[in-house]
Task: structure prediction
Amino acid sequence: MSSFFRRQQNDQGDDTDEDNQVDPELRLRTTQTAHSTISESIRQENRRAARRRKSRKWGSKGLFKSKHQRTVDDDLPRPTEPLEAPQDEQPGGPQRRRIHVNVPLPLDLVSSNGDPKTDYVRNKVRTTKYTLLTFVPKNLYEQFRRVANLYFLVLVVVQVWPIFGAAAPQVAMLPLVVILMATAVKDGVEDYRRSTLDDEVNNSAATKLGAWRNVNQPKDPRTWLEKLLGIGSAPDRVTKGVRKLREKEAAEGKNIVLVKNDSESVTSPNGQDGTGSISESTLTGARQRSLEDIQSVGSHSFSLDQTHNYPPIPGDPLATSAATLQANVKDAIEQSGQFGKGMGYSTTSFKSSIKTSGGILGVVDWSRQVTGTARWERTLWKKLEVGDIVLLREDDQIPADIVVLSTSDADGLCYVETKNLDGETNLKPRRSLKATSNMTSEEDIEHSAFILDSEPPHANLYNYNGVLRFRTRNGPSELGLGEDKMEPVTINELLLRGCTVRNTNWIIGLVAFTGADTKIMLNGGDTPSKRSKIERETNFNVIMNFIILMCMVVLTAVVNGYYDGKRNTSAAVYEIDADVSSSHVLNAVVTGVSCLIAFQNIVPISLYISIEIVKTIQAYFINQDIDMYYEPYDTCCVPKTWNISDDLGQIEYVFSDKTGTLTQNVMEFQKCSVHGVAYGEGVTEAMRGQAKREGRSDLMSPAEQARKLEAQKEEMLQKMSKAFKNRYLRPDQLTLVSPQLADDLSDRSKPQRGHLIAFFRALAICHTGKIILYCKGADSVIYARLAADHDQELKAATAKDMETFANGGLRTLCIAYRYLTEEQYFEWSRTHDAAAAAVKDREDEIERAAAMIEQDLHILGATALEDKLQEGVPEAIETLHQAGIKLWILTGKVRRPTAATGEGLTRIFVGDKLQTAIEIGYSCNLLKNDMEVMILSADSQDAARMQIEGGLNKIASVLGPPTRDTLQNNAKRSFAVVIDGDTLRYALDETLKPLFLNLGTQCDTVVCCRVSPAQKALTVKLVKEGRNAMTLSIGDGANDVAMIQEANIGCGLIGLEGSQAAMSADYAFGQFRFLTKLLLVHGRWSYQRVADMHSNFFYKNVIWTFAMFWYLFYNSWDATYLYQYTFILLYNLAFTSLPVIVMGAFDQDINAKASLAYPQLYRRGILGLEYTRAKFWAYMADGLYQSAVVYFFPYMVWFPGNAVSWNGKTIDSLADFGTTVSVAAIICANIFVGLNTSYWTWIMWFVTIGSSLFMILWIMVYSAFESVDFNNEFILLFSTVDFLATLVLTVMISLAPRYLYKYAARTYHPLDKDIVREMWVQGDLKDRLGLNHRGKTNSRSEKLSLFRKHHLSNESEMELPTRGVYEPTMNRSPVEPQEWAAPKDNSGATLNPIQPPTSHNRADDGRPLTPGSPAADNRYSYYAASQLPSPAPTPISPEPPRHMVATPTPQPAHLSPSPYDIRPPFHSAESSRASHLTEATYTTADEWVEVDQGSGRATPHAL
Result:
């Protein structure tokens, strides 16, 4: 048994120079052996004596180095050239990096001052846009990139000169300053939040090796200026952040002990066992440490006469034979005299013998002289550098990309969770390098020397190529040491930043990439700047207004120059010296600039900031929506990009990942096939959907099936408990239910028992004492590698079982095996090691090496796992289909290399079957029974072209030529495409992209299987740019980031699947089903609001500006202001801005429940009908008309000059007339916004009335003060009947056309939303949706709801029963968690819930449909008996439940996603005021009742 010693701590006061910056109480130490403790003590004494001599000679602060003074670099070995391998680098390309550990840099990598030439990026990550120094200039630059802001800046500068007739420039710049400051505050708050998150990450705690020289970094990283000023992080200083961290942890008294995991429990002196745990103990003194013994490699005692030893002895990493290694180790130990011949020995003692003899173990050379000062110390993430040695503990986040040197596991294994990278929750095994696996302490690291030859940083998450180079010398000759060696470094030895250490007590690693060079940062990249579609269209409107403005300016200047040039006019008498010069041209230019200032409001300066305010409020409402709150993760919908909320209402294509996005990413082992025998009794959702499509009724209900499975599970457990004991069994997690399996496993007389044992042994990778190759993957891959003499019946039986499993929506993998001889294994091992060490084409070399043994396989069986759908996915997809949104599912793939585990070698080939994807598509309503599914699977580009062209011909034969409007085509026939990744690669080629785009966009659904992240992004880009369509991508992992950022809108799921996708997305939420409300409610509202807001904004600027323009005809075109100048400044800032903002933030044309009940309303957004250029010009024309009314009507009133105020003063001044026009224009603008508002809240009432009252208040206050041109206007005007009557009539005449147009449109040509709104306000839509009316409660209607908790997948594809009888379905809402009970009539019979309408009484072009129109189709509707007219008697049948009978009613076909939609149809505006039934019938168990709509009479008929 090993002896336990504690390292002695010296307390002498002169031992301070290495440790002065670190409190030893805070250092994280590993324990040492007795030999190392004594050796370190001797070296410390020698160093102290040398320091005392140096101090006496040079003083305590000497500036020069003695020739006898030694540094850390002096103890480093000087390697010869073979250790520095030649580099194959492309000139100008990315350079490979060489990281030296205890090896000095070669001269070509060192600068003149002795520091490395290569500068690596810091580990500090900054995602903010600004810093304290760059915020003001950069933010101003960003804001003035907007043409409108630059335009107003020019106007402010121009108004500095009084020659242009402007008021004080301080007043003129006020609106621009307010806009700039408000935007800067918003940008600053957003950037501060990003900075807070960055600081939280950068200041996370990490553990690195301190008091140790990292030769890859300069001794002092500061610049000469920082050194001169004494600022920055000096090498001998501890920063404030690090000091606070260490003080905090010192108060907690934590200490870390590293122990290798062993199968034998070893008790340490303090009573703890050596299980590899990280011990934390309270420190009792300032200079004391809690030390425990290290079991460096393991205490597995093994016999020398065993044939196979496990785990292998971590000796020579390049040993070619286990038997040779064993013999060499035996000889070395016998020579050391520590054990007698034939006795058992431990690897711990073996390592001690190597240390005692000054030998080499891997990269550790115990003959090297070291300082012995290295200590583990706590630091921050941002302080880590390339080449640092770090210590990771369980549940630690990995701070950088790190190469694993050693772990707490005796085999060098460790486990990481990569959900932040790829969205997968299963743990990934990683392995330490063999040459470094014995490093367990600071002393081991100091004695090691090696070079990591690494490839440059790149974004590929699944590939890494590096080589560890080291030299062995002066070791025991029996072990074959004393040569330059190398070991390959792959992705299996690399830990990526952002992952989490799991099930591993500690890891020692080497930092390879930091900060922006890490893979997670390279994959994230810069978040693209996204602009909404309406914002891009706004530029056109602004340009049009600017062109109109310039036309007005040029016209004014030309006409004014003409009048100025005329002679003998009244200006010669009344306007003496009024011109700025004698030049008519110059006077015209000055007049034009003055007109530019006067008409500046036609280009709305406050438009952009108003939109920012509105979208901020919209983002807040999205974030606060309780229906999108997911309680298991305690998360709501988080908007990350606020300026694209209106794009949510225009999405035409949704691109979605499958695993983790549509599914729960929780795999359940449901079925298996072993030696041709299938096991498993579970029934999946896909199997139920398939049975319904085939019209089979042999399946039990879900409740009955669950009870049956529970009984079979109990039977299986009882049989298994009688046959054998399993202490690891967890009955609650048993998913493979098969009593037959228990019978076959218990019967020792059947050969099937042996096959089952071999099958499950392969799944668990159990050790059998033989060398076995296990392969699992897709059946196509495995079957191609089977032996030529394989049992054909077994192949056929297994293939049939896998096809059955795949048809049930299960993910299948085939498992095969092969026994290898030692000669075959070692031949492959040498080839594989050489391939793994290759710097170029490593992947190809490894594939060729794997092909050597991946042949002559034999089938063990197959597994079938179910990845269950998330809650509400089928209903969500069905709703999106009804809304006219097309879904493309892009399933990913992951490449996994060969993994060697003990005697077993496992090769995994990942890939889902196309049939599996198809069945999952059916189960989630992605594919429907009436769809024509086309499968594209080709092995060449020509074959892909033929299949794509064949699909196009098939569609054209049914639908005709492709059109932009596919809604009517979908009513004829719907198509779907399923394509695999290889075929997609051909389809995305430049020659086939147009064909594939035409094919995919004419289909309702496209499923792409086994698609790489790059292909996902290319597919999204193809549709977005090829069709100029609005796209949305949704995913859950880092492999979805590319397509998320490529789409117009990116959505990421928060939760178990990881956070990388959510971090890169524009919107993040918990479940896929929330997408329906995000699009159909919030997206549609946002699009409608922003579209109306833009139109009203341009309108109100036209009415204001053109009223001044009409005045030019009466003032010789000299740009005299009609309004008082403060009105010009405050018009957009205070008088008219709030109503438009409130409308953009709070308006709702229909309720959220109605939006979900009528998803077809969303199609107007897809077609872009709410914000068109025709609508823009219509509002501009309306503003032009109203500007003429508000000017000329008061002009005709005031022109006779008869108006007199109450105090006798006449109303005839320009201020009187201008105030009348301005008041009328402002009131018209505010009321006009009110007319276009659909949802009048108290806020809307307040701002609409309040804005006008504020304007009146401003007139009252401002005119009360003495001024040149605005005195007592409130007293003069508002006290006269003429003014008030003029104001009222002007407003009425101005708004009358808009009011009459809206009345006629909604009455005679209503849109779908108008009809739904009328049904909501005046009809019974609230009752049918189960909602209460204002001021009263309806206990019965509270039970009615569209939404049900439990769903039946793919109900809409059910075949219509015979005799026209239809069983209505009970759908569950994706946003309603409550369980709603079915209502009952007076007799107590249960009625089916009333479904809301799902289609419009309108064609795609906006024309209303009549019941007799050709576009109408026979549809089915049903109603409960209580909803019939009151004269109808209700039959009493207390026992049997009622079943509604579907009767045809007129319904437009293009709005019907399925020919069996049974929801009530739309009706015209006239019919919606009456009852919605033309005829209805219902049945009980023994009679059916016919109801006449005209008379309301019910006639019963016996069945």
Summary: DSSP finds 47 helices and 37 strands in the chain. The CA atoms of residues 1206 and 1279 lie 7 Å apart. Residues 1074-1111 form the longest helix (38 residues). The longest strand covers residues 663-674.
